[in-house]
Batch of 4 targets.
Target 1
Amino acid sequence: MGTGSARGGARPVALTARRVALEALLEIEGGGRANVVVPRLLEHTGLDERDRGLVTELVYGTCRMRRACDWLVDRHLRGHTDPEVRAGLRLGAYQLAHLRTPPHAAVSATVEEVRGPGRGVVNAVLRKVAGDVGGGDLRWPDPATELSYPDWIVARLARDLGPAAAREALVVMNTAPSVTRRSDGYTQDQASQWVAAAVGAQAGELVVDLCAAPGGKATAMAYGAADPIPAQGGAQQGGPALVVAADRATDRARIVAGNVAGLGLENVVTVVADGTAPPLRPAISDRVLVDAPCSGLGVLRRRPDARWRVRATDVDRLALLQRQLLEAAADLVRPGGTVAYSVCTLTVVETAAIDRWAASALPWLAPLPPPGPPWTPAGRGALLLPQAAGTDGMYLLLLRRTA
Ligand SMILES: C[S@@+](CC[C@H](N)C(=O)[O-])C[C@H]1O[C@@H](n2cnc3c(N)ncnc32)[C@H](O)[C@@H]1O
């Protein structure tokens, strides 16, 4: 237990995991990102390891299950709630319905941390929610509320993947991600490691990563550190390639440079550049990776608040950018060289439809065999569903420039 306020003020009160979680939820509601807010608040608390883990679980879980929690509490609320009350209600409902915390602990420990006149409302409503959850016959109005996603994401994935596969993906993305480390110690999801390995960078080659930040795949390719896709091979052989790691965002390119330095790599050149017009000679590169900006619907377990931020209209806007990036890659790669296109999302528009477009717009890029299981074929590429191997969801298309 620490003291004061998680936001840095020095008040002589004990800080608990639930109070820190409440403050994080308030900041996230005000526009902060969970993966930025939580580590920053934890820095200012003296909480022990166990309580820090509890803060992360409470905040990430409450963010993911926000819609389900709101439905549980709104049935017992009348009128407007202030942000502190709303955050307290969501936090309590999450513990009751999803963590299965015993009602006496979930309600009283949460109510104790709510400041201001709304405390009584939080207490009264959470007691009713505890009764509903304990009663065991909750009738959710629809799958989107129960699984706690915006309607459009549920509808889009059901259409694009089929209802059963979509539901499985949505359920899996409500769980905490596993942590995987590469042989060089860098933490990177298995799916991203597979993509980096599938690029197949060889010793002495020039590899351009057009959208490199924060540098996970660029460093994997430079180090030869990523695990290959099972039964696929394609791991790096015989020493390092030279990797040009480009990103349009200066602050994000700095993160790449920091990761490169941290890993002691000398074969990565980081540049700030627009990947749709890279400052490099045509046909200069042996391999190009386009790990394109996307709607991120395959990595929602890793970014608990992202589902509330991404919009249906983003998908079409991003698909346009993805085509422009792939077009630039097609010019950058030498005859005989390869282009890998990947996105961490599951929509058809950003995956199989990009492939269909590439097949007609970039006919000098011929398909290479897509990865096998646990990936499933999608167009000339392959899709990795989050439930297939417990990884992030990902799409990969491998192409070779013909002479
Ligand atoms: C999916 S992330 C890349 C992840 C990275 N490859 C890794 O493995 O760590 C997409 C990146 O594309 C960058 N980006 C967006 N538009 C871009 C553009 N026009 N040119 C280059 N980079 C761009 C974003 O700043 C973001 O860092």
Note: Confidence is low (pLDDT under 50) at residues 8-12.
Target 2
Amino acid sequence: MSDRFSTVPLPLSSPGTERTLAVRRYGRPGARPKAYIQAGLHANEIPGMLVAHALAQLLEQVSVLGEVVVVPVANPIGLDQRLHGVALGRYTFDRGVNFNRGFADLDDVIAAQVAGHLGTDAADNVALIREAQAAALAERSPQDALDGWRQTLLSLALDADIVLDLHCDQESVLHLYTGESLWPAAADLAAWLGCRLVLLADDSGGHSFDEACSALWWRLAARFGAAFPIPPACLAATIELRGRSDVDLDLAAADARSLLRFLQGRRVVDGAPGALPVTSCQVSPLTGVDRVTAPMAGVICHLARLGEVVTPGQVVAEIINPTAADLATARVPLVSRVKGLVWARAAARFAQTGDVVVSIAGSEPILERTGTLLGD
Ligand SMILES: [Zn+2]
């Protein structure tokens, strides 16, 4: 077994059980820049696991200048939650909590620790805050197994310069979510991956994993003001590696090569990445997403293709209720409210009333969308 491989136990497991995270580490511990990459946070999102595996194979063959930590299967709890042979993922079985919500908000504890010690040098402030982060996390007592799992992941990732959380959607083009404060600084990541869409928000709501690592920086910057410069020192992104069924050796190998080039460009890994690809990536505010829902239960018939640009009023899907007494009312068209990119579609082909059927990214905020921006 490589000394790069280790397992980290998850705390507060049920009696008689033990769960661990498999962790691969490259480079020297503490070296900068540090990149943290994980896959499968929602448990049944498999494409990222294969990409993490392919990336690990590449990392074995290169010189790592900083540090890279790879957690290829981030959620052993969720992966084990099977019902009738199917890993349902996304939510805990016992309380229905989304696995990508509720990561620790350490703002107040860290702010209290660094207040009075921040100065005018941004790099010094970053170092001070990273120390306070580690101390705040170490002092925190997880309340249950789920929280212990969250804390273990954060303890591996929180001090990283780069955090890449590999997910997938139901049916989807390759896209990513990141902070508005990290754009356009993160444009190289989107370009290397060939993202079709970048969705930006500084606060999506719900304390997702990527924002637990990144948003702290701009919230502290706002709290302490310009006299004490605090840069967005963690580039964190949730990368949606297409749809659930897009698990393919060639795709994964290509995605892993893209991530390696990104890491080379950031000098985490030695080597020349080559010229940054020119891509036609749309950048949208998360507030500009139109989630088209089913007004009644029925069979989903998608009409818009993934990656298609649609216009307001365009029919993107139909819901057909085969049990309607009057056949004239059995068919309901679903229309887009915005001009934008069809980036995700429901994988199921039967909708209950209110289910999201198509997601479309417009370039302007849709005014009534406020509060929590992520679908749960
Ligand atoms: Zn996910």
Note: The chain has eight helices and 20 strands.
Target 3
Amino acid sequence: MTPWSDGYVADVAYIPGYYRQQAPPHMALACLLGGVDPMLPGATDRAHYLELGCGHGIGALLIAASNPAWQVTAIDYNPAHIAGAVALARDAGIGNIRFIEADLATFADTPDGRALRSAEVVSLHGVWSWVSPAVRTGIVRLLAQSVAPGGQVHVSYNALPAWQGGIGFQRLVREAGRRSGTRSDRQVTAGLQVARDLFDAEAANLRDGRLVSQLTELLEQSPIGYLAHEYMNAHWAPCFHADLQEALAGAKLDWAGSANLLEAFPDLTMTAAQRAVLDRFDDPLMRELVKDMCLPRQLRHDVFVRGARRLSDAARDRALSDVVLTLTVPASGFDYQMDVPAGRAELGPAFRPMVEGLERSPATAGHLLEGQQGRSNPAELVGVLVGTNQAIPLLRPKAPNDPAAMRLNLALSARVRSVVGGEVSGGLASVALGAALPATRLDLFVYGRLGAGESITDLDRWVEMLSGDVAEDKQGRLREALIRTAEMRVPIMRRAGVL
Ligand SMILES: C[S@@+](CC[C@H](N)C(=O)[O-])C[C@H]1O[C@@H](n2cnc3c(N)ncnc32)[C@H](O)[C@@H]1O
């Protein structure tokens, strides 16, 4: 293990990525659905967005490029991550971002830490339950001195009890892995293989736990950087929501809601019998514990506010009615069915005209609900459309994209040289969204080719450019996927202000 890393994996880089839960407008929706007033800074405010444990900085860069008047600070102690992030910022000419190489265990007490401007929006994705208690304490100290009153903080973490079946599994993978080699990527592969062999040998304590049934997928499909950073950390410790709340109270943070937006709707995510137990409690801590007992998800995404101001239902609905939405899928591909504990839920015929309307142009939730007899619930409309990842809030409709955002998008697209493997990004910056439009590798590739002045008539060349790792018999599928991307995704990019 690297001597300076306090048990966290630092000899293998993490995977680059963008996560929609880190987007300020998405966090604001989580607050609204939780009945809390979000303090979302305006387009021209000199706001400050802070990311702790930023990895390769892709998310922070996309937020900076999408909010040119804001200042973004992104901190990570891995110099390889920071060096790559600084190089990408320089290549794309993103001037409103500062990357700092620093250890979160001690940063709050350094001159730079003390001088950090207070931040209106903060995100820690994939950090809290993976680092040592000393780092968690340092994070709370930093949040206590750096979050602006009313500021939002997003924290993702491995949640208990969903991870309880995985605690022994992680220990086994780490211990077996450490004894088999030196580098964390080789260790995790070896450790997972031992878990696999014990699973096949019917080890009693590997019979339960979702992870174990996902072993083959983990071994064969997950990127090695992800696996090493998930399983090989010395202090990995999934935690209960109540314990995170208690720790963050040290920074005067109040829990506002879940950035997994569907979790605000027990009617959709829990069975009637589960809801009957949930409804015995008013206390949010107890309600979240009941949810955590029932929901199969292992990663929580919570949004906290420093000094939550509660909204009346009417004020919350007014704010949600004003949210402008745009689709992130073509209307023809919109999934009206949702997986829920009781089976599949149907979104119902009332959604169809709204989805078709959104394909014609972005609209406010209030406008979509006009004329929808008997349906006047903007929370449900916004929560379901955005929560199923089929729509995204459009913060600044009609705002043209910034040249810096376009440069970053082109720089990210230039990294896509194959359909699988290599660098991933996952987003295209948009000033209109105030965030990134989540993007696949093919989205990025097509964006880049269009940016280079090409069009779908260059399809043969596109297929050739991406065919390096695609077997000849699969190239027809690549061709079809590229045509689909150009036909279906490009209009979505336009409506989201990316193009
Ligand atoms: C799982 S990665 C997540 C990265 C990024 N947030 C993302 O989601 O792509 C966790 C990150 O936290 C960083 N980290 C871990 N311990 C840290 C510490 N003590 N100080 C600063 N950064 C730390 C790691 O270097 C790594 O980049």
Note: Residues 6, 8, 14, 17, 53-55, 76-78, 81, 103-105, 125-127, 130-131, 135, 229 surround S-adenosylmethionine (CB under 6 Å).
Target 4
Amino acid sequence: MLKISIIGCGNIGSFLLKSVKNKILECEVVSVLDKDVERVEKLRRELNMKFNIARNINELIKNSNLVVEAASQDAVREYSAEILESGCSLMIMSVGALVDNEFFNRLRDICIRRNVKIYIPSGAVAGIDGLKAARLSRINSVSMTTRKNPRALNLPDSSKKIVYEGSAGEGIKKFPENVNVAATVSMAGIGIENTKLRIISDPEINDNVHEIHVYWDFGEFKIKMKNLPSKENPKTSFIAALSAIAMLKRISEPVEIGT
Ligand SMILES: NC(=O)c1ccc[n+]([C@@H]2O[C@H](COP(=O)([O-])OP(=O)(O)OC[C@H]3O[C@@H](n4cnc5c(N)ncnc54)[C@H](O)[C@@H]3O)[C@@H](O)[C@H]2O)c1
């Protein structure tokens, strides 16, 4: 059975724990690390689970095959190299941290040397399978539009407006907690410099909407996701947590469906 440890028990991490508790996901949770220790303790009591509460990264990785990061880009920068060096694979939700090429290549080299893997779930978007296939031919353009309520973007409530338009790379720096999806789309497709991103703040919507338009040598495709935000964190779409669970199932189950 897959033995996982989790960094971050906020919205995504706590949903993962609940899914293990309710046997939606068949795996063992060994340890959980969160800078808010009281939050982990409270969750462990409420769920009546037996995982360890790790105080540092060494305690977290002990006896685990895979660590799930569901915390922040800082956590990815701080812990990833050590986790991979220890021989544990790593699932990353805060994908924006990987757009730093030097950092990404360093982690990739560790994966090759230590025979471990980094897993990046599709998160709040669909269509990653199409991008991965199309890039084997030639992708001419990828443009992405994200619409969110100003509350989810940490912006003052005002009229509907474009708050960012440019490369995905710059957009991820400006809105690090909101456009992890742009990082995932860029990595699966044509990179952060060539992927175009527009972010719209719209006080009249409550959904998180992502539209992706891809032109490639043998056609085009459009994907529109209209996601309801999680109750606990309006920045995070509920489907992102489900996507992490779907990927863990894919790793642990005998049959894989989809590219
Ligand atoms: N890939 C995607 O499509 C996608 C979608 C939604 C969210 N995300 C990202 O996933 C991450 C988790 O999202 P969430 O909604 O669960 O967030 P959240 O704010 O609800 O929870 C994050 C938890 O991590 C803890 N934490 C943060 N930094 C830490 C650190 N350095 N060390 C230890 N603990 C730390 C916090 O105390 C908190 O309990 C965020 O970075 C978010 O941007 C990715």
Note: The radius of gyration is 18 Å.
